[in-house]
Fold these 2 entries.
Entry 1:
Amino acid sequence: MNIRLFGITKDIIGAESLQVPNDLSIHTVRDLKHWLYAKYPDIKSLKALAVAVDHGYAEDGDKLSPGNEIALIPPVSGG
Amino acid sequence: MAKVFIPTPLRKFTDQQSDIAIAGATVSEILEQLVERFPSLKQYLITSDGQLPPFINVFVGEEDIRNLQRMETEVSSDTLVSIIPAIAGGSEGVILSKKELARYDRHITIPEFGLEGQIKLKSSKVLVIGSGGLGSPLLLYLAAAGVGHIGIVDFDSVQDSNLHRQVLFGEEEVGMPKVDAAKKKLESLNPYITIKVYKERFSFKNALSLVEEYDVVADGTDNFPTRYLVNDVCVLKGKTNIYASIFQFEGQVSVFNFKDRDGNIGPNYRDLYESPPPLGLVPSCAEGGVLGVLPGIIGSMQALEVIKVITGVGQPLSGKLFTFDALSFSSRTFMLKKNPSNPLTGKTSIEPSLFDYEHFCGFHNHEIKEITAEEFRCLMGSGEDYQLVDVREAHEYYANNLSGILIPMGKILNCSHQIRRDVKVIIHCKAGGRSARAIRSLEEEKGYENLYNLKGGIEAVMACKLENA
């Protein structure tokens, strides 16, 4: 699964996108969040983070499959 | 004699008369008589080729003349001839002068937009919160487009470091309150609109009353507490919130709390982000930087959505989040939905603490002591012993510093032994955000009581030096 990163998540993870190994048991958005939280504690402390799956806002219980396009969209406040 | 009914917007040309008795056998003859008596009506009633303009309908009795013989429709005496301009509700009485018709000609020419769209713009009231990077193009385009009443809220003054993106201002306005500079510029751009300014912070105290008198709100603020406040007030007051936000090379746009024709209300900011990130984690433009042209692009899109929402032309960006990445020149639109745990509109009831914006955004966990750039200059020259700590990152420090000791924000607690307790300690970063967070951590975790936040950070000191140079 490939995750497209936006805003501050690029800085936290240090890349434009992130590849999630297929052998991990990530089946839902919740699983993905927990994996990210463990790997990147600053993602957890963001508190506000939208996850989009195939161009739609996803909820924690939503299922993920290998072909999904995932995006992490953190809030931005600049004006 | 037939009786002609004149609608409110046209009565200013008929000495306020609403019913006028006119002799004539057909609609054509009656209208000719009418414009002969009131010549200034002509531009609204008869085109150069003797036809009705597309925005005017005429009824004989209860029948539209388009269903009869049009201009040649016969009118018997004592019949009521009604002139009904195509104007949406709320626009009653609003009319465009000849000069305005000329000014907005290219709008009026667009079939989907037309005179009706232009009149809706003139009748509308838009509150723009923040007149900075996004506010600049937003205000310029709203004013140019002919939005009749524009309110601007901003407490800040124009700074030199604003000018690379805030194209509303010029060098001669540095130091001037932004709202005053904006009003002057916009009034010179378009004399047919009114600009009302509020030189104050958009806060919990004034938010409800400020929003009340406007139809639409456009959020161009630069911090999370205000963004949540704008959102929540719009939800409470039933106003559409045209949202845009930027960070370095990226922008976001959406239309929140939009009520469609069927009365359904779209998602709001809290459906996207229920609660804000902790202070300092997501940098502001002052801390993280922003490419100057980016707010130009994103703020123009925001203006577009304001205009669409007002006129009802097209499909507004409700229920969608548009994102733009200038580096890869890619844009994506994500579908939003209502979040059941949205504290405003979801299943759970509202907790009052959610409205203590600055608190929940981590701003005022407790008050910290501050020192201004000017006071800091005095301290430097006073001979009093003090310590200066810079909590920025190493690359920022080596680019430019005030000769303080460098302890980056992330290491502040581990390196706190380097911070003295016996003298005044001034802590600074670029603009004051990170240093405030550092002070709170040191006070809470390490019991410091002698720390002062340098207000406005190194930027304020540099600006102060320039002023005194």
Note: The mean pLDDT of chain B is 89.
Entry 2:
Amino acid sequence: MQKFLKASLATLCMALGTFAVTLTPARALVEIDVNRGVVEPVPIAITDFISADARGAEIAGVISADLRRSGLFAPIEKAAFIEKISNPDAAPRFEDWKVINAQAVVTGRVTREPDGRLKTEFRLWDTYAGQQLVGEQFFANNENWRRIAHIIADTIYKQFTGEPGYFDTRIVYVDESGTADKRVKRLAIMDQDGANHKFLSDGRSIVMTPRFSPERQEITYMSYEGGEPQVYLLQLETGQRELVGNFPGMTFAPRFSPGGDKVIMSLLRQDGNSNIFTMDVRTRSTARLTNTNAIDTSPSYSPDGSQVVFTSDRGGRAQIYAMNADGSNQRRISFGDGTYSTPVWSPRGDLIAFTKQSGGSFQIGVMRIDGSGERILSTGYLQEGPTWSPNGRVIAFFRQPAGAGGPQLYSIDLTGRNEQRINTPNFGSDPAWSPLLK
Amino acid sequence: MKAGFATSVTLHALLLGVGMVSLSAPKAFEVSDVESFPVEIIPFEDISQVQTGDRQAPMLDKPAPLPTQRPDIVADAQKVGEADIDNDGPPTPAPKPRPVQQAAEPPPAPEPAPKPAEKPVEQAQVEPPKPAPTPTPPPPAPQPAEKPAPPPQEAAPEAPSEAAVTESTVSENVQLPNSAPVPQSRPQPPQPPKVAEKPKPAEKPVERPKQQQAETPKKDVLDEVAALLNKEQPSGGGAQRSNEQASLGGRNTTSGEKLSQSELDGLRSQIQQCWNIPAGALDAENLKVSIKFRLTPNGAVDGTPEIVAGGGNSTIHRAAAESARRAILQCGPYNLPSEKYDTWSDVIVNFDPSDMF
């Protein structure tokens, strides 16, 4: 019986196969494969938003700057515009924009509501398809106009890349001022483009490794406040600060879990070994994940919270290891020359960024989560501390040149292109990128 | 020293001498004349390409266009007329309705007749309100009865004069009164005798009869035209039918050439210059997209390119597909030999970035 069934099934399959062959869909006579392309920023025209005051032009300026810094867009100089947009709701004359090679046109309007809020409308037009791609409007307080511009830039970014943007974000970092021997280190926060800079600590005690909570407006960092380094938690909105856990010895290299409910960090014992612990932010209960006689540090969760990547010198030299979130299945994933440190799992989940020290220089690189496909994005005298933009396409880090001077913040695209300096008032180190603001 | 030098010279001279005698010259390099053949390189497609056929059919051994069908034989029409269905019944029913319809139309004329009697009154009543102060209600009644035409004229002059006044005030010119014969416009309404009876309803009644009159003649004309155009499809006969299954080929029999490799390369490189690969995107090397589009004979993209594969559900796939679509729109018009238009009117481009990573 089974044989019969099998035979009939096979016949049926064959019949269907021949049927499919005879019914091959219509094929154009010319079919070509294109395997090469260019990596060029998309030319885009961002017109000044119509407004009674200068706000419209300011918003357009911030959008332009955001998109240009991303390296994926090339905002066209306003002087080249042929058509002057007077009605942002009507379709622009696409021919005029094609002439200046704009692939998209952004138009908008800013008006003030009776209650004083800003109403911002914007439309994104595809010049070649001759249609509107997006149209949105936002209401916000006047002082939040930069955020509106960032959100619009994010929308445009998403339309062209398919991935969420990262412009409506902030970066927390350690501001360094004073001479090399009397360095004052203060916690500082700013928008990702350097605007709205603000200090979070007074600089009386040294602060290090600030990290953003992925969910809340919280920062965890290490401070020498109590004499020896301890991990603290800072509420950005209230300014409230608390010590995380009460461990004997030093705790350092803290990082939040994806849900923001746990902090994972290293605890240094008296004998010089360090192990990885987690602590629940609310219940304060702790758990130990590694138990070795080596130095295990710099833990970082995968975005789904199931894995942890960390560095350990249990094999002789510091290399990158991964394990399940409960500490099981510990395995080495990096096998390159040199030493690895500060692995960070991409928020997108596909890559791990790291610092690598070899041949007398420091490199920032990425590898796949199984350790393959290692790529070095940037090399320098001393550079460290990679942190991912929330969309997983840009890495910020700090670099210190040889000789005098201090560290500066930089960002680089995942492709290794488009390295940008992030402007800070003083020297800066240890950047940490926030998630998209809500 | 001297002896050694002498020996060396002697021995060398001896060696050279022996060599000159014993070593013969090499054989001459002989090249035989070979006749050259003229060689012409022609594309294989010139011979192998199917000349005519259906572009959606599979390739067959025999070139053949779409099989033809013999048109159905339709019986000759028995009656030619407006009826949609060719009725076999007596021709009487068809003609009958017409006289009835035509007869039905005249009636409206008689109808207005009775109305005028009422209407003039109404209109007279309506009119008075305007000149209310001067004219008295009684006069209008006798007027319509005796002189139906004059009253409008009287009314007309009044209206135009008023209009003239207003116009003159507006235009500031006194000359206008000279042209006071403005009534020129009045003669028009009295045109139809029927209308003459209804002086004031000028606007409404005039329109109605016009429409009716216009419709009836139109119908007649249309019917005639339709009858003239109503040629029966020729049935049967004609050229010999083809029962061959359609084979892959072009519409035209003359331009069955394929694009040469270099022409394809030209098209490819043109598109490559515009295609922005999705560098840095998640899983970028697997973002494959196929776009199908139609070209006009001058190489411009006709309509919107269609995403035939790889559109995907994720926003990343969609963005990659849109990027490929933009590349095609941006790069046009394409430089392709116009004599082979039939072969490149439809193009599919497969974008595959995997080699770039």
Note: The CA atoms of residues 43 and 260 of chain B lie 7 Å apart.
